[in-house]
Each structure stands twice: as C-alpha cells, then as structure tokens.
Write a structure and sequence with these properties.
By secondary structure, the chain is an all-alpha fold. The chain has two domains: 98 residues, RNA polymerase sigma factor, region 2, helix turn helix motif (Rna Polymerase Sigma Factor, Chain: A); 72 residues, Winged helix-like DNA-binding domain superfamily/Winged helix DNA-binding domain (Arc Repressor Mutant, subunit A), CATH 1.10.10.10. Helix 1 crosses helix 3, helix 3 packs across helix 4 and helix 5 runs antiparallel to helix 6. The longest helix has 25 residues.
Length: 178
C-alpha cells in the first residue's frame, strides 16, 4: 500500500487533505476487520473513530517504525486492534461483568479460508487443519501482533486459556510442518 504510506507521511506534516484521502481509502477495510472481531456496530464505529484520531496524532511515528518493516495497512490495523481491546476493557468495566460476558466476537470461516489461502503451501494447509479456536488465537497474536492479555480481552478468554491454545497451535503447526 505505497499510496497509504505516502499519505501517512503527508498526514505527519499536518496535511488534512491527505488524512481525508487516507481515511477514505483505508477505513472501509479496517471497519470490516473490526466487525469480524466485534458484533457491536456502535463499538466498532467508536473504535474506528478512535483509531483515526490516533493516526492523525501519531502519523509521525509511522516513519520511525518503517525501517523495521511492515506497511501502512499493518500499522493502521495494529492501532485499530489495540483500540478495540481498550474499548472492550472499558465496556467490561462499565458493565462490571466478568470477562466471559464481553460482546460476542465473530470469527467467520471465510476469514480463516482467506488466511490459509494467503499463506498457501504447506503452511496454509497446516493452518486450515487447526481447530477454529486455535486459529483465532494465532490470528490475534501472530497476525495482529497482540499480547496474551490483549488477545484474552479480544476473544473473551482467560489468559491461561490463550496461552494454552497458543502452545497447542504451535505444537500442531510444528507437527504438521515436520
């Protein structure tokens, strides 16, 4: 997404037109990914708004991170995923409910298929063989770059369950690829 990277550099300089264009080009894809993880449309809208407010404020840090690899889409998604975790935490505190009572998170099979198709080869086949709950943990921790705690909040699972599923997923992947 070289255009988005160029737009981010302009946003870092305070270019409002570049920000508008970046939002127009990237917000629909970010919203779709958020909706795949949270069924609450109001919360998704709030997270999307918070994500792009953060992008406006922190666009300059994208250039600092760029040498380590990753593009604008990954940087934007990392911000969105972390904002979703923060929003789910706030919502849980507001409701004073246990972690298990968080909004229903949906993980459609189509995304799993796309993930396996994108990776391809033996790795894609190994991913396709994983149980959906193991794939969800791998997706959050590896692809979205979330910590165990953030994955726990995102998926509505205890941290110990996230750790054990991550370990089971790694073991299953290692066995499938050996």
């Amino acid at each position: 997404m070289p255009d988005a990277e160029r737009l981010l550099r302009r946003v870092a300089q305070g270019d409002l037109a570049a920000f508008d264009e970046l939002y127009r080009r990237t917000a629909p894809a970010v919203a779709v990914r958020l909706r795949r993880r949270c069924a609450d449309d109001g919360l998704v809208a709030e997270v999307l708004q918070d994500t792009y407010l953060t992008v406006w404020r922190a666009a300059g840090s994208f250039a600092d991170l760029r040498p380590r690899g990753g593009g604008a889409a990954g940087w934007l998604w990392t911000i969105a995923a972390r904002r979703l975790v923060d929003a789910l935490r706030r919502q849980a505190r507001r409701l004073e409910a246990p972690a298990g009572a968080l909004p229903v998170l949906s993980m459609p099979a189509a995304e799993d298929e796309a993930l396996a198709g994108t990776v391809g080869g033996e790795l894609g086949a190994a991913l396709a063989q994983l149980a959906p709950e193991l794939r969800a943990v791998l997706r959050a921790m590896v692809l979205d770059g979330l910590s165990v705690r953030e994955t726990s909040v995102l998926l509505g699972l205890p941290e110990g369950t996230v750790k054990s599923r991550a370990r089971r997923a790694r073991t299953a992947m290692r066995e499938a690829l050996s």
